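User: For my dataset I need records formatted as: sequence, then structure tokens, nothing else. Please produce one.
Assistant:
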Amino acid sequence: MANTADIGRGMILNLDGSLYSVIEFGENKTARAAAKVWAKLKGVDNNRSIEKTWNSGDTIYPVRVEKRFYQFLYKDDTGYNFMDNQTFEQIALQESAIDAPQYLKEGQEVGILINTENDQVLAAELPDKITLKVTYCEPGLRGDTATRTLKPATLETGATVGVPLFVNDGELIRINTKTGEYVERVKE
């Protein structure tokens, strides 16, 4: 069994029959009372976000999760379809199970989190940073690099992101999928 000393960011816990991912955690110590461990949790099998506090040393129930890499194939009325690159097995996930579906493009590799106890698919995670092509944005002016002014740009996936003024149509840019922000321009 694990206890609160083993808690870590990204760990998936079983609380009252539901699965939660640890987003943030910490410890509160006071001179008069025993230490407490707190965590901000996001539901894996539901859309709830909760905060939980334990006494230091309490038992927690982590779920063993395996990350397998799948390739995104297409989206249809059954959901987003992915294929395992080793076994060619296909699965369909709903949009709520994918961390940033607006940045998915066909052929992209994503990590699928699978509960090893019952082989249940939990979620899909895109890489932290991905490269996408700008399909439309207003033309930039030469020398517009001094300020942090942003303009909207439409990407090849249909998503819109704020980019610096010097970015033009047809250029490749790197996007942070966790925050949805522009990171850098990529040279071909």
